[in-house]
Amino acid sequence: MTNVALDTAPARQPTFLLISNPSVLIFLACLAIFTLGVTVLAEGFGIGVISTSFVKTLGKTLCLCLVALAMDLVWGYCGILSLGHMAFFGIGGYAIGMWLMYARTEIIVVQSLSAAPLPPTTQEISDGIAAQIFGVVGASEFPPIWAVAHSLPLQLAAVVLVPGLLALVFGWLAFRSRVTGVYLSILTQAMTLALSLYLFQNDSGLRGNNGLSGLQNLPGLGDVPQSTVSIWFFWASALALGLGYLLCVWVVSGKFGSVIRAIRDDESRVRFLGYPVEAYKLFIFTITAVIAGIAGALYYPQAGIINPAEIAPIASIYLAVWVAIGGRGRLYGAVIGAAFVSLLSTYFTGGQAPDINLGFYTIQWVNWWTVLLGLSFVVVTLFAPKGLGGLFDFIASKRSPSRHGADLGPDAGALREKEAET
Amino acid sequence: MSTLLEVSGVSVSFDGFKAINNLTFQIGEAEMRAVIGPNGAGKTTFMDIVTGKTRPDEGRVLWGEKSQSLLSMSESQIAQAGVGRKFQRPTVFEDQTVAENLMLALKKKRSPFAVLNFRASRADRERVEELAGEIGLVAALGRKAGELSHGQKQWLEIGMLLAQGPRLLLVDEPAAGMTPAERELTTEILVEAAKTRAVVVVEHDMEFVRRLDCKVTVLHEGSVLAEGSIDHVTSNEAVIEVYLGR
Fold this sequence. Notes:
heterodimer; A: globular; B: Rossmann fold; six-stranded mixed β-sheet
């Protein structure tokens, strides 16, 4: 073995998270500039060039970027194609929505009862709230799951705990029976579908297909205009995305990231190295479910309404498509994919895009957008497996040779790429 | 010499086919052993049983001074107890650098939380470089494992096994697809490793086994046919019959 010591540069170990990952600083800087720019241009505190509804759209997009980060962590890095993360996202939304709806209805009920000659009892207030909220599904009593809906701290805890516990239990059952690959995807999809169908029922306790509404109104802050509230939520979403990004970077850099990428590439080999693979998968599955829950809790107050259709499996499939288009296995790719595709989707399905009249047929984007999205997914998968994030490699001329699916290494005796370059 | 691994009366069948039939096998603390046998003799299944991938129908697999049973342990627990395995096909993590591959294998705590807080110390990095030196890959530390040649991947995998610091090394056909020079280095690495730990080499190639110069176990139809020095087993009538045809 002759060692041609051309580049004796052993991989330098990262000393500090931000220094070793320059892309993180760039990302955070972009996010900060974007946040500042929107704040200045919006109505709430700025010059009012951007409408409040568009600020909400941007804020929602940031939440979708956050859940896409979670998806990238679980799928792009750990190889678990979960089709259930939008369910965790929805659960987070329901958890915060319950408090928002309860607290706001409480104010209205107390106000209307205050006109009565006798001061209302607690029971009367509670009954009034229940009648207001559950009238649409023909009930007038609080279902047990609303037990802590009056308490903001407890519902905030639920935002984290319910998706986390569900993921923990579900993941534990699935991973310990070594369900992997497409079977795991089907299993997660089944979980999502079951949850969605359950929520569609009127007696689920969450208002069936009506869902929860009026979430954009913050209880007790009725005087604050939506233009201000929308900026608050925009800031909160940007902060959550920034912190979520740092958390994900911390998880994937260093040895833990190395282990989960190894699990993605060859699970049984990692097991023979002595790593408890199931524990790692469970950790990633649970932590990403929690991130998804938090993203959902920030998203739905900006959307104003949540209903079971939002939890349907198709939402989770879209999530996977965003990450694939953005480029899985790199965190900024997931963010770019989610932002790009969801904003385009808003544009095309919002009726803003002009129809194209071909004479014999008029292309209406509302209908054709899904087809376009499907096509672009196929194109990206076939021709640009690195996704939009791969463009950065292209700019940095960091190209890897196309090998048509074969191993990365050169054939024995072939001229090495590295040597050929120098 | 005390016994490190004791396999006794182990049988396993797949759909009625007896892959391992009442197999008994022992190896000491610092010993090299070659396991040979024709295709279908049960060599790989034997490794699967020791590493916990396959559960035998009957028999015992005892490990270490405390004679702990390996049968109730998971693959990762067995690996942590000190059993390292090298597969026939080189399985390294192609998307990661040689240094990352070695760091992954380095004997450290394996639980998620311990790994999350893990920061490589200077000693760890030196150990990785030292290992890379042993397997001749110092110059390739920063390269992705996928870019390595077939032989280099084999060595990287052996290096990862050494990094694990196992007390028992199971090596499946280490010399497959190697040039004569590469075989020589492989032999050296294995002989060196066997000075401090038990090494079991499964191999087809008689010439390679001869060079290892160790006790040989011949498997046939799932059980031990002969055991002894290479000259002893190659002169055994039953072995000649199995290997050279009747």
